[in-house]
Design goal:
The chain contains 11 helices and 8 strands. Helix 1 crosses helix 3, helix 4 packs across helix 5 and helix 7 runs parallel beside helix 8. The longest helix has 29 residues.
């Protein structure tokens, strides 16, 4: 599974043959420039989901993150109503909820019973960083690890088709995977999960730069340094415009035939003569 947030990234993920494409609320950070995932709205998520659907309309399973504030209410119909919007308006095949508490499992059960497939998410749940105290690994004590297993089991019982395990020790993720009958998808959770997910921008080095490196999570392997190539290309374009090398003849493909060019030049000459005559008339009046 790989994230995508717009038409071109969806096209690339689809072409690579990735099985599941997640329109993550991480869009808030890597696309919109926020410091956390919390500010992005449901309408904004639907906008990005629609673009992704156009880029990968058929093959991969499309999962949309339910953003912070769109599903956590005691009235579970709010979550279902908003999940329907992600499917009907956003074009998603499934939605993802964070958390595995009893209350969250009830929401998942209601949404699944309403006909929408749900991907669960436990461990580090970025929408809850205010409660967690920041982007911190989870499951590093025996009690907390057992709690994560219970969360995952609750999500499975509620009808989730798979569970994301984020930023947990590898042995904990392996134990949860072995305990579940549904697949797990790891991110910073070792190799014992059923699958893996990374953020598009992180794995491709989209924000890498020749003179500095933006923050990349410790668990993320960078498979490219696309950001450096982007910067180099932009700098080369700027330099060639300034020195006149671009566009040049090679990139000026549209031509007039000889006859039309001669007529155009005559029109320019006639226009210049008329302007000159008009200027002379104005000078005579002023005198």
């Amino acid at each position: 599974m790989v994230t995508a947030y717009d038409f071109p990234s969806a096209v690339h993920v689809d072409r690579a043959g990735v099985d599941v494409l997640l329109v993550g609320d991480s869009c808030a950070m890597v696309e919109l420039g926020f410091e956390t995932t919390q500010p992005i709205t449901l309408d904004q998520m639907i906008h990005h989901c629609q673009a992704v659907k156009r880029g990968a309309p058929n093959r991969p399973l499309l999962v949309g993150d339910m953003p912070f504030g769109s599903y956590e209410y005691k009235d579970v119909d709010i979550a279902l109503k908003n999940a329907y919007r992600m499917v009907k308006e956003g074009g998603m095949d499934a939605v993802k909820f964070e958390g595995g508490s009893e209350a969250r499992a009830n929401i998942v059960r209601h949404v699944v019973e309403g006909g929408v497939a749900v991907l669960g998410h436990v461990g580090l749940t970025p929408q809850a960083i205010s409660v967690l105290g920041g982007f911190r690994a989870q499951g590093r004590t025996a009690a907390n690890a057992r709690s994560l297993l219970d969360d995952a089991l609750r999500l499975q019982d509620a009808g989730a088709f798979a569970v994301v395990l984020e930023c947990v020790p590898a042995n904990v993720a392996t134990a949860i995977t072995e305990a579940l009958e549904i697949p797990t998808i790891g991110i910073g959770a070792g190799g014992g999960t059923s699958g893996q997910v990374l953020v598009f921008h992180d794995l491709l080095g989209m924000l890498s730069h020749p003179h500095h490196e933006e923050f990349v999570p410790r668990f993320c392997k960078q498979y490219a340094r696309v950001g450096m190539e982007i910067t180099n290309g932009l700098v080369q374009f700027k330099d060639e415009v300034k020195n006149g090398a671009f566009p040049g003849n090679d990139y000026s493909p549209y031509k007039m035939n000889k006859m039309e060019e001669e007529i155009f030049n005559e029109l320019l000459e006639d226009g210049a003569k008329e302007e000159g005559a008009s200027a002379s008339s104005v000078d005579d009046i002023d005198e």
